[in-house]
Structure formats: C-alpha cells, structure tokens
Amino acid sequence: MKEILGYMTEELPKHAKEDLDQVKIEEAKQMIKSLDFTNPDLAVLKEVLIRMSIAVQDCSTIYTQNGKNIEGYFPSITQLASLLMLLLPKLTGKKGILLEIGTGEGKSCILAMFATIQSIRGTKVDVVTSSAVLARRDQEEWKKLYDMFGVTSSVVPPPQIQGSSPESRDSMLQEAYRKQLVYGTVGSFAADALRQEFEKDTTRGERRFDMVIVDEVDYMTLDNGVQVTFLSHEASGLRHLRQVLASIWAMVSMCQPIEMENTGEIEWTTGIQHFHKAAKLAVIGPATSKDFSEFHILEAGVELGIYSDEDFDMFMHALENTEKDDTTENRRTVDTFMAKVGITQQCDLLTIMEKALENDVDIDCYSVTNNKAVLVKEKMLHNNPDILEIKMLLLENGRASEIIPEKNSLRQLS
Questions:
Q1: pLDDT (average), residues 40-69
Q2: What is the domain class of 250-306+341-413 according to CATH?
Q3: Of the residues 161, 244, 265, 276, which has the maximum number of CB atoms within 10 A of its CB?
Q4: DSSP letters for 199-241
C-alpha cells in the first residue's frame, strides 16, 4: 500500500487538467473487471486509481451560470488509502472490513468509489445510511460518477412514492431494486426484505444479497441498535395466517379437473411436475428417506436403455448446479434429459417400481386424448384391499401428475 500511495502522491497532480473520454472510461471498466483483489496487478491497480480520481474530479467540478468553473477535487491520500483497505481485505484472509473515518475526511466519496468499482464487477451493492435524507443526498451527489461508468443507482423508498397507490408503490420499489446500486436506511432494507420473505411480495425481485456498505455503523448498532420494523396490515389478526393461506392457494391452484375416459367421472390432477418427483410423491409422499429417493426411479432407465450412464450423470450434475446457479445451460441439460422419458418409458419405469415395491402398489398409467385421461394399457384386476392403488397421468418431456378423486383432493388440502 505504501508503494501505491507514494505513486499516487507523485503522479496524480500531473493529471489535474485531464478529462476522461468514453474510450478511457471503457478501458478503466475493463481494467476493474480484470483485477484479482487476492493478488492484484499493481500497475493495473495504480491506473484504476488514477482514472477513478480523475472521474471524481470531473464529477465534483461546479459549473456556474456565468461560465466560470470551480475546479473539482482529487480524492485525498487518506481517501485512497481507505479505498485500498476496502478493496483488498482478502489479502489478509478477511471477508469484510471496518474502517474509522474522521469527520470531514469524505466518507461519501470513499463509499462512492468503492461502490462504483464493485458494481462494475457485477456485484449488487446495498448502501445503508443513517437517514433517508442522507441516502437521497449521497445518491444524488454521486449519481454523475455512477452514470459516467454506466452504473445504475436508486434510493429506497423512491422519493416519488409518497401518495402513490399500493400497485404503483410496489412497481416503483421493484424498479428501484433492479438498479445495481441502492441507497436506503436499515429500516427500509429490513422492511422490504421482510415483506418478500413473509408476505411473499416481490419487492426486491431477484436481487441478491451480494454486498452491504454501512455508513456510520455505530448509528445502526449502538445509537439506534434496537429497531422495530412492523409490517402493517388492515386486519392485524389475519396477518399470521397469510403464509398458511398462501400455501393452501398454491396447492389449490395446482389441482386441475380432468374427465376419466373409462368412467366419465371428473377427477383431479395434483400438479404437473417432473415424472420422477410426481411418482415418488404419489407412492411415498413428501417425506424424505435415506433409503429411497425419486432419483432411484430414474436409475432403472439406464438398464432399460432409455438413456446412457453418461446422460444420467450429466443430468444429476446439472440438477446439483441448478440449486447453486439456475443458469439457462443447466436447465437446458435437465430438459434435454427429461425429453427422453416419454409416456411409454414412464410406464416401463413405473412397472419396475411396482416390482421393486414387491407389488404392494398397483399403478395405472393414463395419457391425455381429447382432454380426457385415457388408460394406456389394461392391467389384471386384483382383489387385495391392502394394495395401494395409484393413477398417474403421463405426459411427454418427462412430465407427470397423480390423479386423485375429488374427495381425496379435499382430504389432501386438509
């Protein structure tokens, strides 16, 4: 750090009259993206600090009405040292860092530079301030810097939200959280996170909790350490039931009526999903078992020649990756694999499943023809009341659902 700060002290004054054009800005962004903060290239890091300092000077320049300009300022050595300490904590094996910045030493400038660099690298940044007034002030003060580097920014709640309808309020909040860099108070962030978690609102959308920068951390932890965020409701007595009602509605909305071709009766599908999940749920239920999982149903497909060992391994690998990173490539791998499990293949797999369960289960396979459930193949009747009888609706692309009578669907909800 001493070498870098010495270089900046000597080199920065040489750039006092320099402005950043779009080419230099794009070059700076590429350098920022290429930096490895666990083992940084010092030459690249120095150039990034030079260009970021020039950008700060450009953004702090004041243009008067009479045509005279009040020249902006370069970040001080203290500010650059603080920025380096924020950027390079991993050199000491730490994930985060706490800095004490004296009054008047420019916390907002330090945070603006740090947030800009992190946002350019694709990190979603939440900046927590001690008041809504400061959040709005800092975002407006440094918006020019953010715009210069193509970083989108906002404040929550947005200033124009006052007096708006509930629908407009939700829309404005969602738009604010789509920005790369969001300013707000700890109360605002907590309330929005709670709404999404407990009320199932989409306030934050798909915004990740990547990085939080806390301005005046002592205010949040000491001065105002005990904070209560209350999600108000018109009928407070019902707010505890909201999750239960939402779960019931999710189950009800999945059930769809279907006419049985052989009896003319109306029965219900319990929700279309991947075949192996539907089969396991129908036979064993939602409980998990270390001895049996839905993937055991698919393993038999290798022996039947429906797919190869390599296909199955790629499918399992893609599923595992999807839980960590739901990318288009992983979803495509899963869909390609499941497309091989057609209606005939599903029947064969269910037959093997019946045998594996020692014929304690009798599964009738149905497909859809003219919006009716049609039996795929007739089976021998049995008179054993202890055998569990199951009806499965089989669809192409490895999709399926259990079919149950209406009385069973009501029992399932209760």
A1: 88
A2: alpha beta
A3: 276
A4: S---SSTT----EEEESSHHIIIIIT-S-------SSGGGGGG
